[in-house]
Structure formats: structure tokens, C-alpha cells
Amino acid sequence: MNMEKNRRILVIDDNQAIHKDFRKILASPVENTALDEAEARLLGRSLAALPESNDIFEVGSAYQGEEGWEMVRGAIAAGKNYAVAFVDMRMPPGWDGVETIAKIWEIDTEIQIVVCTAYSDYSREEMVKKLGNVDRFLILKKPFDAIEVSQLACALTQKWNLARHLNKLRGIIEERTQSLQAEVVERRHSEEELRQSQGRYALALAGANDGIWDWDFTNGVVFYSPRWKSMLGDMDGKITSTAEEWFKRIHPDDLGRMKRELEAHIEGRTEQFRSEHRMMHGDGEYRWMLSRGVAVRDSSGKALRAAGSQTDITDWKLAESRLRHDALHDTLTGLANRALLMDRINQSLERVKRTPGKAFAVIFLDLDRFKVINDSLGHVAGDQLLVELGKRLESALRTGDTVSREEPDNLARLGGDEFVALLDAIGTPADAIRVADRLQKVTAQAFYVGGHEVFVTASLGIAMGNGNGNKAEDILRDADTALYDAKNTGRGSYRMFDQQMHASAMQRLMMESELRRGIERGELRLLYQPVHSMATGELVEVEALVRWEHPRRGMISPAEFIPLAEETGLILPLGHWVLHEACRQAKLWQTEVPRLRELCVAVNVSGRQFARVEMPAEVAAALAKTGLCARYLKLEITETTIMESGDPAIVELNALREMGVQFHLDDFGTGYSSLGYLHRMPIEALKIDQSFIAGMGEDRTGTSIVQAIVALAKSLDMRVVAEGVENQSQVDFLRGIGCDFAQGYYFARPLTAEELAKFAIGAFVPGKTASSAAA
């Protein structure tokens, strides 16, 4: 009997691009060689054995579940059944994936299903509950690659074809069995004809690699075919013809269920006997078996005998177990993933709801500065550290006091360097804090990765769960919020969540949304603070300072929104606007105000801006668009930014310096510097932080620091700009030690563009502040 080869596949997805991808992978003649290679590897066949014709998949497309159901029904009517259907989980506004699968299986029980989804709308257990415990569906996570799709298509169409072929063989067996039943009734159980019939259907089933059993209830004798015995490692014929030989090998946990399933069929309550159970192999290991059979009955319906087959499904069960495990565990560490963690938290919530007064805790752990490990030692070393950290955290949770002895899968890795521990048997917040302290201690111990000794610290956020209307998502969010607060307070610490943290998080979220809209709506404004020459009093440059003119709150200081912009990445579009606007305004002053023809403008650049390789090109574009000469633009960067960027920062600085752009090292003395780096960087001036200027005169230390910075700058052939100058005595002292430039309220507060143009008139005498400066 030749086995038919059905390669018809149906794709049910509301995204047209997905259909194009499937056709490109499965239906394109150009891709056929790669597909054949994948099929050959999967099925253990040589490539030469594959047909040389255009043996490609025939792919059908449906964009809603209802449409897919109609296509399946039409294919059945035309005798051209689909072998496999790739079904999306979300297809609004019609049926979702689960409903679509259920409808299709009502009309086609043989079609193989691959659930394609990027979401976890249903767990594997929920899908089994809704669709039944069947082996006809797999889950494919989006995004997927071509090989993955090709292998599934090859494997599942082959499985469909094999199943159809096997069904035909079983049809033959059923025909033979029915014939045998008729002969039993008509010829009074002719033993000779029965043995001949057994031989016929045993031969047919041997082709399907199944074992055969035949149980005569009248005398209790059970016939087991040689293949049935060999499946259990009996190569010497030690298995006798009794039912006990079967039952005693079944796993104790499965035996009761198997007997109930067999009894149900013998009593006529089921059409067929079917049971999946574990059986002891001769090597001492259990293997999964699928036993199926039908009973032969007399005219009164009493079962006289039953015959059937046994299939070894161990490999299927192992594959199913691996898929189930992989769907719920992190591939790197083997710990639970987010889906399994959320399920565990939900279980904890249900427990505390049933037991008033009980509580549990969630600890969110994140490594501090883990990026430094990846950047310096590489991602392989970083992964090794994460694996070792996972083991340490598991050990810390399972040892010590009873409170922290948690069950498996109560520690999860959510991705990157984020871990979450669920403390289900917790008593009080103090217990959770004690566990958090232990987790921090094991994290702080030395790691040995890639031949290096590495030390890391962790910040932790703790949230308590008491079942008071909370959801799993809320508990995890609260722990994450507490973690955020811990990192802001100081790395290597932990914080217990309170409602004020949630209010602050909501406020940050609202401000982020408003800032994003504010950038789009043009609510940002620039003010300009004059910088004067200490030798001549002349206005030589201005520093551009951004403000946010909120429609309800009015002018907002950068101290409120710049840190948020840095954290969220909004600093990039914000910095882009500041750079272009400052260059545009400087060029406008030079053109329209004679005394400002040589005015320079200084623009602050954040670490995130400076880290982008596109920074030189962005500066060049701003200068080209506004027409400002590069020598009139000065970029202010902090020493911390340069030190964190390392040698690439020097390359970027030199590229901009070659364009003519100058650099100021802002807030000098407040971060950390390397004199070796400082000597190599093309820095034109150091800016003394205003905290040092304010400390002059209060004690000798503050004055000495300012003198040392000026002396250092002179030795490196750099100029010095003092920030925050507020009185005449500071001006006199700075002039006396050779400070080149100064800015501060002594000269003027930050001014609007129009105010600065007016301020330029008569601005050459230090100490005289424009009347508009108070604005």
C-alpha cells in the first residue's frame, strides 16, 4: 500500500505579512532545497532519496477563524484535506485561536495544529482543558525563524501522512476483526480461524511497529505478540499468557486508571479501550505505552474477548515534556520564566485568600552595573555569572530558616539580570527582609568567570501579598517599583514597597507622557546665561539652558524633568532640539546684533547622547542647517560621561574637534577623572562647579580646591570657567588667581533670547545686572 503524501497547509492569521512569510518559507520553489534538507535531517533520510520534482507545500490563507473553518470544511468536501494548520492566537474581531481550533477539530479530527503566538493568553494546561489532552497541537512562539517553521511543516505533514496510513492499516484490522467477530458468532469460536485471523492482523500491525494483544475472557488467556514483548525488553519469551504479566508491569500510579478504562469498555460504556500508561522495561526503566483495543461481544452484548495494539509513545511524551518545560522555564538558567512565576503568584494569592492572616512576599532583584561585566568581559562571561547567581539564589532560598525554604520554581529569571523570588511561606515583612539580606550576601560573594574574579552587588525591591484584591501583575509591579526606589536611593540596598512609591511611580509615568507630548508640541524653551571674560568683562559666550513651559504648571526646572528624560531615553529627541535651537539662535544674534557677531553658544550634552556613534553627524547636520560656524559651538560634557565611555569617547571628541567644535569639561571635580585621559582629550576649558565657588571663603579647603583646579588647567594649557559666581569678592579672587571666564547671578540670571540681545548693550562692566535678569 503506497502512502499518500499530503503537503497541504493552511495559515490562519489576521496579519497579511505573516501569510507572505509562510508562503516565502513553505511555498517558494527557490526555498525548496533548504526545505528538503530540513526534512531529510528531521526524518533521517538522505537528500538523494527525496523526489527531485517541485515537491513544495501547498499553502492556503485565511485571515479569520471563521474563514479558516470554512476552508477546512471545503477541503474535506473536495477530498483534499489540510494536513497542518498554523493558527494565530489573537484574530480580532472574530474567533480567537482556541475557539478556531475547537471548531476545526469538530469537523476534522486528523489535522495537526501549530499555535502561533507572541502572547501567553492561555497556558498549556488551559489549552488542554479547553481542547482535550491530545497530541495534535504544538505551540510556536513568535517571532520564529524559517528553519523552525520548515521543520514543523515537514514533521507534522509527515505525521499526518503516517497517521492516515496507520488509520488505513487499522481500518484493515477493524475489517478483519469484524470479520472475525462474525466468524466467532457464526462458527462458534473456531480456534483455527481465529489463529489465522490473528496472524493476518498481527502481520498488518507489525508494519505499523505496534505490538498486539488478544485477551480471551472465557479462559483468561492473553496472547502477546513478539513485538509487544520486545517493547518491554522481553527477548527470551519469559512473559506468560496471563493478564497479570501486563498489570504487574504498569506503574503503580497508572494501574488503577488503566483498569478503570479497560473495565469501562468491557462493560460497554466506551466504544474503544484506550489508555496511556507507564510500563516497566526489562532495563529497569519505565516507558510510556499507548494501549488500544475493542471487545468482541455475543448477541447479548457480553464481552467474550478483546484484541488491540500497544504503541511505544515514550519519545512523544518526552518531547511533550520538553516543550512544556521550555515554555515555562528560562533557557539560560533553567529557572522559572515570567509565565510560570505569574502562575505561582496567582496560586499564592488563592492560598492567602483562603487563609486570612497569611501573607507571602515577592522580592525583585536586579544586579547593579551588570552592563559593565558584559562590556568588559563579554556576554559569555556575563551569562556564566547569571547561571552561577541563579544557583546561589536557589541555594539561599532552600537553606536556613523555615521561612525561606521555598518550593522549586519559586525563583524566576525574567530576562537580563532580573530575578524574582516568591516567598510563599512568609510570616511578616521582617521575615522577607531577612531573606533579602541573605540574597544580597550571596550575591556579594566573589564570582569567578572567564578567569577573572568579579564582584557585583544587587538592589532589591520587596512587595507583600495578602490577597486584598491584588492581582499577580500588581504584586510584581509593586516589587519592581520598590526596586526602582532602591536603585535611586543607593545601589546595593533594598526597599519595602509602600503606597507612596506607587504614587511616585504614577507621577513619573504621567510626567514622562506629558514630557513626550511637550517635546512634540514645542513646549520646550531655551534660556541663555551669559559668560564673561574676567580680564575684560566682555560677554564672550552664553550657555543654553532648557526649560519646560508646561501648559498647566508653568515653567518647570530641568532638575525635575532632565533625570526622567535620561532614564526614559527622551533625552535624545530633547537634546536634538536643544542643539538645533541653540545653533539657530546664535546664528540669528550674529546676523542681527552687531555686538554679538563673535558670540559663542555652549550646549550641554548628556551621556546617552554622547554614547551614540551618530553624534558627530548630528552636530554637523545642525551646523549645516543653521549656518553657524563650528568654532562658535561649544559642547559641555561631564568627566563622568567621558570616563564611562572610555577610549571611544576620545575618538568621538577628536572627530568633532576636527570639525572646529570646542569642548568644555562641565562640573569638574564632582565626578571622577583620570589625569591620563584628561591629558589626551581635546578639552578647551574646565568648568569649576558652583559648589566649589560657593565654598570659597568659608574654609581654606574650598579655596584651595579652586586654586588647584585653576593651576591644573593652566598646566594642561586649558582655560577655566567658574560657575555660580554671585558676589564681588568671588570675582576679585577668581581674577586674582587667573580664572579666565565666569558666569552666575552676579552677571545675570538666565535670559530669554530677546532679553539677551538687550543685555548685550552695556554688558562689559561686571557687577551690573540687567533689569530683565530677574525674569
Kindly describe this structure.
The chain has 775 residues and is α/β, with parallel strands linked by helices. It is 47% helix and 21% strand. It is elongated, with a radius of gyration of 38 Å. 34% of the residues are buried. Helix 14 crosses helix 15 (429-444) and helix 21 (615-626) packs parallel to helix 23. It contains 28 helices and 26 strands. The strands form five sheets. The protein has an eight-stranded mixed barrel with strand order 18-19-21-22-23-24-25-26, surrounded by five helices. It has a five-stranded parallel sheet with strand order 2-1-3-4-5, with helices on both faces. Strands 7-6-10-9-8 form a five-stranded antiparallel sheet, sandwiched between helices.
Concise description?
The protein is 47% helix and 21% strand. It contains 28 helices and 26 strands. Strand 9 and strand 10 (303-312) form a beta hairpin.
Task: Tell me the Rg in angstroms.
Answer: 38 Å
Distance between the termini: 95 Å
The shape, in one word, is: elongated
Overall strand count:
26
Largest pleated sheet: 8 strands, mixed, barrel
Share in β-strands: 15-25%
Enumerate the spans where pLDDT stays under 50 for 5 or more consecutive residues: 45-54, 400-406, 763-775
Strand order of the largest sheet: 18-19-21-22-23-24-25-26
Number of helices: 28
The residue-averaged pLDDT reads 84
Q: Which structural class is indicated by helix and strand composition?
A: alpha/beta
Determine the fraction of residues in helical runs and give it as a percent range.
40-55%
